[in-house]
Amino acid sequence: MMKTTISLSTPAAVETECLVAVVLDHSPGTDKNKKPELKVASTDTAVSSAAGDLLASGEVSGKSFETNLLHKPGSLKAKRLLLISGGSAKKFSSYDLRRIAGAAVRTLKSRGIRSFAFVAPSSMPAEEAVRAIVEGAYVGNFDPDYYRSDRKDQKIDALTVVASGDKTALEKAANEASIVGESQNFTRDLVNEPSNRMTPTILADRAKKMCAEVGLKCEVFGPDKIKEMKMGAFWSVAQGSDEPPALIVMKYEPAGAPEKPVLGLVGKGITFDTGGISIKPADGMEKMKYDMAGGATMIGAMRAIALLKPKVKVIGIVCATENMPSGKAQKPGDVQIAMSGKSIEIINTDAEGRLVLADGLHYAKQLGCTHLVDAATLTGAVVVALGFNNAGIFANDDDMYNRIHNANAKAGEKMWRMPLDDEYMEQIRSSIADIMNTGGRWGGAITAAMFLKEFAEETPWIHLDIAGTAWMEDQKPWIAKGPSGIALRSLVEFVKGFEG
Ligand code: BES
Ligand code: MN
Ligand code: ZN
Predict the structure, then answer these.
(1) C-alpha 198 to ligand 2 mean position (Å)
(2) Which residues, other chains included, contact 500 with Cβ-Cβ below 8 Å and sequence gap of 6+?
(3) What's the pLDDT tens digit per position in 301-338?
(4) Distance 289 CA to ligand 3 centre (A)
(5) pTM
(6) CA nearest 351: which of 372, 334, 366?
């Protein structure tokens, strides 16, 4: 929990452990030898003059994430002034501001400071700035050091955003951003847990507990119900594990929402992916505890939606299971019948995510969902295609793509559209069943999405492949190494986009 308040005072008058202000470079052009023209992004002349000597000294480059800390700054009431550079003034956006706010949190908490005030840059609308600062601060405040006995438990517990405008509107923005930030960190906590402490049953229990807290309906179905519902694709993955699978269904049906649309958020919840009989190499296999990130994202998104209360119906579905080799595990060559009735030839048991999602998507339609989004750490191939900086978007509908693209811009998350041409279907046609679960080496992220498309059928649908973006391989100034919580903010914006 981070207590968040809005202050309309002039920054100089704010009493705080540390006032944080953004420094932007106003120099034109991109000449390597140019001299930066640095200015504090605030109209308060007292802050500018407190920073004046330092900015004029030539010691500050203005490059993003550079920090300078002054004690007893000029005429300011603050005990300290943290100047944090945001790069070029011309390019500076709320995307950058989120990260700068995260970096401020990480800089200050590592020094043992627990509260600070952040001056909203005057260059963008105040509400947009408040959202970015609060969301970014939450992202920066998360550290996955729960199991370390030397953890410092350093957290920022109070943030004041200094801005000008309508206080009620700014407080609403801060409050909504806190809900989103907390939900994103809730997701990151789930993803961070190792598979021995995050089995399908435990994931379902965490979802149930969250749903009870925020007033969502939640049902969890076990092996018997999964078999009874003829979820043959989901079960084919679950059958190899001693841990029972869980089908988690969360419903948000607010009073006054129209009958339609009903949005379905379907997440891949593989709590550990060994690959099954097509077993993965040992090197790096420990990371496959995060193969439930898509599911955790949907659970966190449902939490945010329940608290933000948009007037639109949403159903969250998570197909949770381990993917294990065992005497009961499915084998390459097996044929499985999905809930939709389609037959699947299993070529590689490590292509399990698409199997559980096939039944999850079909079930979502049965529950009445008119629009579908799934999120999944689905393929290594999407990492080859897009690296770590963009999640893959696949859509069978341009309106759905536009909606998620607009949501990405509001949420400050990067995703990139990938193709879904009919020709790719040839790669997953089977000679003995309707479809194969892998399409060979080339275009692996696309053939995986084509497989899912066969189960979304005519329903407007988006698939987000977050394999390269759900886990930070290294820490960055604004975020710890580990689970990123990618896609949650975009999903929340996407849902809000259907309101009214
Ligand atoms: N969970 C993996 C995908 C993955 C890879 C996630 C790297 C995060 C990082 C998925 O279940 C998988 O194993 N996919 C296979 C598919 C292949 C067998 C067609 C892959 O990408 O290698
Ligand atoms: Mn796999
Ligand atoms: Zn997987």
Answers:
(1) 17
(2) 311
(3) 999 999 999 999 999 999 999 999 999 999 999 999 99
(4) 9
(5) 0.98
(6) 334
